[in-house]
């Protein structure tokens, strides 16, 4: 008979294992946060800093940047679902072999097809351009996309489709990154900037990326996810990784994952040594940013999101900023034009929760110190809150 993990236990696990109940398990470094979340979403550069800040009681921006760009104990790389992540550098090889390698193969086939259909090139042309771009980057040490296009003009090749035109620049660089050959370095502007210089990964790292067997890497990636997000369903793990159903099931078998029942009738999985209950972390609140890993860690979110999807997610499934209380989402937040963090509850909350959220909003406002963070993917509530906060009442 399968063990049962109820919703209260699932919420307690997230709080304890993902640094949300900070008074119980204080976090000291950005590297620890990244490891506990498996990977930090980095599509929106501000998310990395805000996700760490939510769990480290507002560390300095410099501390996170040091881990990313000076000590390089964190690596920004393409990984699961063609998404940009920041991962502990020692875990990068697992992500590369377990997820990014398959993404690169799929996207290469797609780009070759588009090149051929538009008459812009073929597989041999793509290979030659890629090697030329890599050589140019090696010579420069670091370079922007524009600089690389100046060195290799074929990066400006235009593919003309019935629905519009597209330069190959970003797609060639995407493939080199997905292949684990190049990496994004420090942003050209502030920590919220989305423009970067590129470097060769072998130059960026102190040692080469280990070439792991993909099946072994997928097993380790599944182990990491289950240890931090479990229990989760097969569909959750498949969605988070971007794997096929065959690869997902194979990884679960290799782990000898244990089947458990969940509230609502779903079936989930935990690691063999993780079937027992965890302690209740007690009351806690958190203001998590757009695309935070905790929010985005599951395909099925009803047990912590409730009926708030339309308010807090955009149409393509990207999460906006959220308010959490005791393991579930109860509202959202945004910044007004002056930088002040404003909040809104989507359901009734206890006065103690409202007071704790108000304190957290004030602390986050002070930590941001006037920096405006506009999510790359804007959810309806975030947009409405931001607009409303900017309205001047006569």
Features:
394 residues, alpha+beta, 4-stranded antiparallel β-sheet, 3-stranded mixed β-sheet, 16 helices, 14 strands, globular, DNA binding
Overview of the molecule:
Keywords: DNA-binding. One of its GO terms (molecular function) is DNA binding. This is Winged helix DNA-binding domain-containing protein. InterPro entries: AlkZ-like (IPR009351). Helix content is 44%, strand content 16%. It has a domain at 301-388. It has 16 helices and 14 strands. It has 394 residues and is of the alpha+beta class. It is globular, with a radius of gyration of 22 Å. The strands form 5 sheets. The chain has a 4-stranded antiparallel beta sheet. The termini are far apart.
- Helix-strand string: EHHEHHEEHHHEEHEEHHHHEEEHHEEEHH
pLDDT average, as an integer? 94
> N-to-C terminal Cα separation, in Å?
66 Å
Compute the number of strand runs.
14
Count of helical regions: 16
Unreliable sequence segments: none
Describe the global form: globular
Rg value: 22 Å
Main beta-sheet strand count, sense and barrel state:
4 strands, antiparallel
Class from secondary-structure proportions: alpha+beta
Beta-strand percentage range: 15-25%
Strand order of the largest sheet: 11-12-13-14
